[in-house]
C-alpha cells in the first residue's frame, strides 16, 4: 500500500505566465484612435445606448448620500471592462449587444471592483500627500512672515500641485490597461496594475503623445453640451482595446509567410 505524497497534495497550483508588454511607437497612437473610430462606426447605435447607460449608472451612484464619491470610482473599471468586452466581440466578427456593458459584472466582478478600490485609494493618497506638502509649506511661510513667507507659501502650493499631478499620472498609467488585463487575460488586479504601469513607463514617449491627444479630444468632445462624449467614449473604448492588443498580445506574422509560400512557381 502506497502512502500519499504530502508534497504533491500541498504543492501550489502553477500559475499561467503573466503577459509581458511589448514595444509600441508614437505612430501606434494614431492607429489606436483609428481603430477606435472603426469600432464605433461598426455599431454606432448600440454604442451610444451603452454610453448613455454608463453615464446614467455613474451619475446615479455619484448622488448616493455619503457614499456617492466612492461608488462611482469603484464601478468605473467594471463598466469599462464591459465596453472592452464589446470591442473584442466586434474585433472577433461578432455582433455588439447592449448587455456587453455588464460583462464585467458577470465575469471578474470582484477583481474589477478591487481595481476600483485601488483607484480610489490611490487618488486619496495622492491628494493627502499633495495637501501635506502644500500645508507644510504654507505653515512655514506663516512662521517666516513678510514677503519671504508669502513667496514660500506660494511656492509650496505650486509644489503640491506638481506632486499631485505626478502621482495622478502614475495612477492613470496603472489603470490604463488594468481592466483589459483582468477582463481579457484573467490577470489578478494588483498584477494588472503593475503590468499596466510597466507598459506605460517602458513606452513613455508613446503614452505621453497618447495622453496629450486624449486630453485635447476629450475637451473637444465636451464642447457641444457634452454630446460629443456619446461618440468619444466608445471611440476611447475601441482605442483602449487596440492599445491592449498591440502592447500585450503577440501577433505572429503568419499571413505574410503563407502568402510567400503560396506564390506561383515557389515550392515548399
From TrEMBL:
Domain DUF7847: 58-239
Alphabetic keyword roster: Membrane, Transmembrane, Transmembrane helix
Domain of life: Bacteria
TM region(s), chain numbering: 47-64, 111-133, 145-178, 199-221, 227-244
Biased segments, Polar residues type: 1-10
Region (Disordered): 1-22
Entry annotated with the keyword Transmembrane helix: yes
Designated name of the protein: DUF7847 domain-containing protein
Amino acid at each position: 500500500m502506497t502512502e500519499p505524497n504530502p508534497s504533491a497534495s500541498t504543492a501550489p497550483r502553477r500559475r499561467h505566465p503573466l503577459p509581458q508588454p511589448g514595444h509600441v511607437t508614437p505612430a501606434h497612437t494614431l492607429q489606436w484612435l483609428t481603430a477606435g473610430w472603426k469600432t464605433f462606426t461598426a455599431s454606432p447605435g448600440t454604442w451610444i445606448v451603452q454610453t448613455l447607460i454608463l453615464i446614467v449608472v455613474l451619475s446615479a451612484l455619484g448622488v448616493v448620500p455619503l457614499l456617492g464619491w466612492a461608488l462611482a470610482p469603484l464601478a468605473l473599471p467594471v463598466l469599462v471592462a464591459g465596453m472592452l468586452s464589446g470591442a473584442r466581440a466586434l474585433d472577433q466578427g461578432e455582433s455588439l449587444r447592449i448587455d456587453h456593458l455588464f460583462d464585467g459584472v458577470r465575469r471578474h466582478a470582484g477583481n474589477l471592483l478591487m481595481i476600483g478600490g485601488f483607484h480610489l485609494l490611490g487618488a486619496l493618497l495622492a491628494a493627502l500627500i499633495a495637501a501635506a506638502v502644500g500645508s507644510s509649506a504654507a505653515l512655514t511661510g506663516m512662521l517666516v512672515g513678510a514677503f519671504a513667507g508669502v513667496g514660500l507659501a506660494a511656492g509650496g502650493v505650486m509644489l503640491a500641485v506638481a506632486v499631485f499631478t505626478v502621482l495622478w499620472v502614475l495612477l492613470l498609467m496603472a489603470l490604463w490597461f488594468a481592466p483589459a488585463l483582468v477582463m481579457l487575460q484573467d490577470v489578478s488586479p494588483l498584477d494588472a496594475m503593475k503590468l499596466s504601469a510597466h507598459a506605460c513607463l517602458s513606452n513613455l514617449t508613446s503614452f505621453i503623445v497618447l495622453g496629450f491627444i486624449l486630453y485635447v479630444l476629450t475637451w473637444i468632445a465636451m464642447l457641444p453640451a457634452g454630446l460629443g462624449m456619446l461618440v468619444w467614449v466608445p471611440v476611447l473604448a475601441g482605442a483602449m482595446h487596440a492599445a491592449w492588443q498591440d502592447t500585450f498580445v503577440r501577433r505572429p506574422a503568419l499571413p505574410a509567410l503563407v502568402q510567400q509560400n503560396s506564390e506561383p512557381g515557389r515550392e515548399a
